[in-house]
Amino acid sequence: MTAILDHLAIGTPSLSGGWELFGGVLGGAWANGGDSPGFWWGQLEFAGGPKIELLTPTGGPDAAFLDRFLAARGAGPHHFNFLVSDIEDTLARIRASGIEPVGVNLANPGWKEAFIHPRDAHGIVVQVAQQSGPPPVSARPPELPEPGPASRLDLIEHHVGDLDGAVGLFRDVLDGRVDVAAAGAAELTWPGGRRIRLVHEDGLPLGGALNHIRFSRAPGAYSVHDRERAGLLASTLGLTVELAD
């Protein structure tokens, strides 16, 4: 079994800020997207690192999970997605770690999925999915701006109350390689420059919270205007974005 960090999903009631930030400022290129029952999703990919997915509710009873999230927390990080080669094996590993997965749906041969509740995943939903073949090609949304200069999504920093438990989940169940370990922190990597830094912090709701995401370009490539726009747009999405030279 292999698992790889595919994307970070962000829930938002409005897509415009996400399109401008991740596309116009940070150079994300349209990857895929479409309608699912109750919500619309769209993904942007970068020069390196995981993709960013934007989720927005479209109404009806199937939108309840996202409506609840936005009502309780506002726009912000919703889940990590890991693509796995064998979801049955992944589910066995999750259960062997003492966690009972939720939302298990293996009926669709093209997309089998399950979730780990944020109480068990250190403050954020974790989605594991087995995908059969490439997703269908979908048209680029007309409101998505032309991408700016390409960026890499270098790092996702996630703060957790139980560092050992979080490292165990992302390493032993989700195949992260511990690349850096220090007092109070650990960095795990997956192929393609995908990196999560876990940092110990007490007193967080649900035992964890995404702290920030970091993008980089060539030295000096982010202008003062880029930084100001990124900060303002990220705040409307419930995010902190670091632009590194």
Describe this structure as you would to a colleague.
The protein has helices spanning 16-25, 64-73, 87-96, 163-173, 224-236, and strands at residues 3-11, 29-36, 39-45, 51-57, 76-84, 102-105, 111-116, 125-131, 152-160, 177-182, 185-190, 194-200, 208-216, 241-244. By secondary structure, it is of the alpha/beta class. The protein has two domains: 3-131, 2,3-Dihydroxybiphenyl 1,2-Dioxygenase, domain 1 (Roll); 152-244, 2,3-Dihydroxybiphenyl 1,2-Dioxygenase, domain 1, CATH 3.10.180.10. It has an eight-stranded mixed sheet with strand order 2-3-4-1-5-8-7-6, sandwiched between helices. A hairpin with a 5-residue loop joins strand 3 and strand 4 (51-57). The protein is globular. The relative contact order is 0.19.
How would you summarize the topology of this molecule?
Layout: E1 3-11, H1 16-25, E2 29-36, E3 39-45, E4 51-57, H2 64-73, E5 76-84, H3 87-96, E6 102-105, E7 111-116, E8 125-131, E9 152-160, H4 163-173, E10 177-182, E11 185-190, E12 194-200, E13 208-216, H5 224-236, E14 241-244
**CATH 2nd-level architecture of the largest domain:** Roll
Structural class: alpha/beta
Task: Give the strand content.
Answer: 35-45%
Quaternary organisation of the protein chains: single chain
Proportion in helices: 10-25%
Count of DSSP-assigned helices = 5
Low-confidence stretches: none
Largest sheet: 8 strands, mixed
CATH topology term of the largest domain: 2,3-Dihydroxybiphenyl 1,2-Dioxygenase, domain 1
Terminus-to-terminus distance: 36 Å
Q: Specify the overall morphology.
A: globular
Q: What is the residue-averaged pLDDT?
A: 96
